[in-house]
Amino acid sequence: MQLLKDRILKDGKCIGTDILKVDSFLNHQIDVALVAEIGREFARLFAGLGVNKILTIEASGIPMAYATAHAMGDLPLVFAKKTTPNTMTDGVYSAEVRSFTKGTVSHVIVNQNYLGPDDTVLLIDDFLAHGEAASGLAEICRKAGAKCVGLGAVIEKKHQGGAEKLRKQGLKVESLAVITSLADGKIEFDN
Amino acid sequence: MQLLKDRILKDGKCIGTDILKVDSFLNHQIDVALVAEIGREFARLFAGLGVNKILTIEASGIPMAYATAHAMGDLPLVFAKKTTPNTMTDGVYSAEVRSFTKGTVSHVIVNQNYLGPDDTVLLIDDFLAHGEAASGLAEICRKAGAKCVGLGAVIEKKHQGGAEKLRKQGLKVESLAVITSLADGKIEFDN
């Protein structure tokens, strides 16, 4: 998605060789028009697969997941939570998700009422790095008996291997900007 | 907003006398069409005030804040973060926010690059209870030199007093459903 790649080159910042900071337009301050366009692109890429629910993890995946749900005809959107709030009294499906960026392991949960065998799920997230978050969400779908068709990632860091791992699990993976290197403070795309 | 009140009566659940659970359509599973309508209603209620930025707190305020930003002409949306991720290297504005529901105190931050004297800010959140979250966001606006014009809350629990506190600070407060009591498992609105 050229609009996105241009924006990453203009406003993205490399931190070391692993982290791309895009918080001026994607995951702290949000360019709503850009994210709406991202939602329309995911809707196009995952059309015809029978998707009837969008699943993401709080918090930074929510804007693009919302935009995708809207672009696919106002599908229900579920965001997995990272802790158990005390208002969540019913049973939950859970998975562990490691964040390499933050050096943490989160317990990610979805209420059992909101995911089940009737659901054909598309995962949406802002970043695809090692694939830990998406693997955790796919695991939650399996536990719920839901079909998980794929992952739409806004930015993939290809050199961290997540897409390959997810494709081996049978997921269709579509990333709107695929980064091959962040070495020497320079952002390189795969095409 | 009648559509919202009807939905709360249909799908909301009381937990004790203080907590209204709406996670089937508002803050875990999201009814995207309803949230889009909520965004349009906030855009109508806060029109003509010169708002040029929407501010919320992760995570459950993000969908309605995004919808409002979109309905107001794709304004930039900023969501305050509850912890400092290691990709946030620049200076931040911060405030403490107590959650009565969760029994926690969060350190809420906004990067200094994304809020400043040129901004006229509208706060959006899913719930208004004691007003702690909105007060924290208003404090962050003051620290940034930004003008904070008001708060749009999807659901206000009037008996917890937050709206009155915020109005005394000079904020315009608009809540789309105002609840006066959750006693005996019965949801009562103020009109």
Q: Can you give a write-up of this model?
A:
2 copies of one chain form a homodimer. By secondary structure, chain A is of the alpha/beta class. Chain A has a single domain, classed as Rossmann fold (3-Layer(aba) Sandwich), CATH 3.40.50.2020. The first copy, chain A, has helices spanning 2-11, 32-45, 62-71, 132-144, 162-168, and strands spanning 13-15, 19-21, 29-30, 53-57, 77-80, 92-99, 104-111, 120-128, 147-157, 172-181, 188-189. In chain A, the strands form 3 sheets. The first copy, chain A, has a 6-stranded mixed sheet, with helices on both faces. Chain A has a two-stranded antiparallel sheet with strand order 1-2. A two-stranded antiparallel ribbon of chain A has the order 6-7. In chain A, α4 (132-144) links the parallel β8 (120-128) and β9. The first copy, chain A, starts with a helix and ends with a strand. Chains A and B meet through β3, α2, α3 and β5 of A and β3, α2, α3 and β5 of B.
Topology (elements, then pairings):
The structure is a homodimer of 191-residue chains.
Chain A: H1 2-11, E1 13-15, E2 19-21, E3 29-30, H2 32-45, E4 53-57, H3 62-71, E5 77-80, E6 92-99, E7 104-111, E8 120-128, H4 132-144, E9 147-157, H5 162-168, E10 172-181, E11 188-189
Give the structure's gist in a few sentences.
Two copies of one chain form a homodimer. With 191 residues, the first copy, chain A, is α/β, with parallel strands linked by helices.
